[in-house]
């Protein structure tokens, strides 16, 4: 028989690489399907093994698990240059997943590509557009009505181009992936920053922008800077009130929000076996908050148990056969090593306003009083993609049962978000949902809800100082409820439940007592719950739409008068000249996340309409000139006004502009709208001290220049009234800094250097005007 690589080449020539996924044509002997929904798409561990062996022989050293999976998906393992933190890898991911808020722009870009079908298995998940208001069923009905146009677009686009569609109410994308699509050794990209959740099942699952997803769906090798690998060695075992969430809360405190940038966090060591599969997913999920490319755990019996319980015993059996490739090699090297003794780890709570401000639960009340943070808790919220598993709900219910036994209910408002329809149906069947209602909770829809700002909050007024505690992942200013005075803290679901019962940050469930209805004091015992249901999972309602075999008659309509959807026009090509006299739109002071650049919440409804959503550009960023948000000086009129209005004025008058940013600019969500909007409104470059990984890539994809100060102190040389000229673009080459001339109003000038991370392919994106433009050029 001909070698695998030769067969692949023949198949690509015969079938067209952009139209078919090779794995669907060339099956391996085991023929184990990647999922129940794609019975003809097979897991290809044999190819993974072959590539790993090629790379191991070349590098002549032991490999980390991260390296095995990433290098095992190289497009050309024999000749790919591999150097951690430096070279760009060309990879072939196994599949793509998109949530509904980002899928709109991704599918609009895919439509613009002119391709007939996606080249790899892909899915759309409706989870972001459901606002929490009255409760699960009512909120879901309302969302289906309000978002009918968008849901119809996504459903028909999925049917037309071969993408599976998970209807609203099915659950949060990452829980659906864990239950159905993730498996040990998979390389999956998703248009959401918490895609790393799948690392809990031993896969490399990476959050990306929509343009990256389009590349993969188009059959083009996906580029990723070769990640460094941070090892986290776990010893001891979890017990008592300490949970998997506390591991990542502790790691976030150590590494900070940018400490994982450019690296995969790889957990290993004897302590791993004390963590459930869904607990590992929790840890990987929140790795996004330290800027990590992704996080991963080695394949073990906890993963096998979860795979079997979710109807995928065949995958577990196959993984057993290839287990040597699903764990790190002995003696492998990590670029950084952190050690955590789980037996000594205490429950943590992080916040407010940033997910890396870590406190032991025992100390947070004292710190809050010292800092002037409100100690009374207004709302406790459990769920989200980070903590909505069966085990999470069970441990929370175990705490709630104790309170109910003593006649207590929550002093704070309390909400529960199931992670999926399967979780909702199962916790209803097993009584957990009712216990959580009995203690005072409201069960919300199977969706993201308040975690992403989809919360019609009524108990406070905007500007009112208050505290909430959540089991979510992010707590940036205004993220959950659009109130900048909400102090949000993140912790485990069981700690949220205990604190909601007590109603104060000053309560430590490990040591403090509550007073029952009978006046007697009692102490909550550490919760205990099954990691998986004793009976089988209840799948609940069927919410999946298969793409039809024949989609030739399927139409995808976008009304030219729609306020929700807008077909994309190509961005203009680079004119071949240096960028002269760029106006500074805003010089940002301090933290500037993608929430600051392109807010979520009520703006989510415009995610498919670029012009409309551009009205939120940088409205949350703080202008260093006056210390205000959404207030910048118009350089022509000298009047202060909203950022989007000023950008539109500049665009109308042919004035090109630039943004000046601080550290870790663009941290947080994967939303590419934070790159599309500045490009749409006339921006040309974003100059910062440093970037978050996904946002930097998104900017490149849209033809913008993400540049960093060669000397971070040069940030202080630039003032909002200056003009900038960027030189060296005619000789734009990888690794060569660009010159920036700062022109001050008094006529003086200064020259500084700007670094970049562009490779040859990315430079072509810039010259073409965007990655999508470049794709079309290559097609011609």
What is the fold's blueprint, element by element?
Blueprint: H1 4-15, H2 22-25, E1 33-35, E2 38-42, H3 45-59, H4 65-71, E3 88-91, E4 95-99, H5 100-113, E5 122-125, H6 136-146, H7 148-161, E6 164-166, H8 173-180, E7 187-190, E8 204-207, H9 210-217, E9 222-225, E10 228-235, H10 244-255, E11 263-268, H11 277-285, E12 294-296, H12 301-309, H13 313-321, E13 336-341, E14 348-350, E15 358-360, H14 361-371, E16 377-382, H15 390-405, E17 413-416, H16 421-429, H17 432-438, E18 441-443, E19 466-470, E20 486-490, H18 493-502, E21 514-515, E22 521-522, E23 544-545, E24 579-587, H19 594-597, H20 610-613, E25 622-623, E26 628-629, E27 632-633, E28 640-641, H21 643-652, E29 657-660, H22 673-680, E30 683-688, H23 693-701, E31 705-709, E32 723-727, E33 738-743, E34 749-755, H24 760-768, H25 771-779
Parallel strand pairs: 4-5, 4-7, 5-6, 7-8, 10-11, 10-13, 11-12, 16-17, 16-19, 17-18, 19-20, 24-29, 29-30, 30-31
Antiparallel strand pairs: 1-2, 3-9, 6-23, 14-15, 21-22, 24-32, 25-26, 27-28, 31-34, 32-33, 33-34
Helix pairs in contact: 5-7, 5-9, 10-11, 12-13, 15-17, 15-18, 22-23, 24-25
Region (Disordered): 531-560
Cofactor: [4Fe-4S] cluster
Domain Aconitase A/isopropylmalate dehydratase small subunit swivel: 583-711
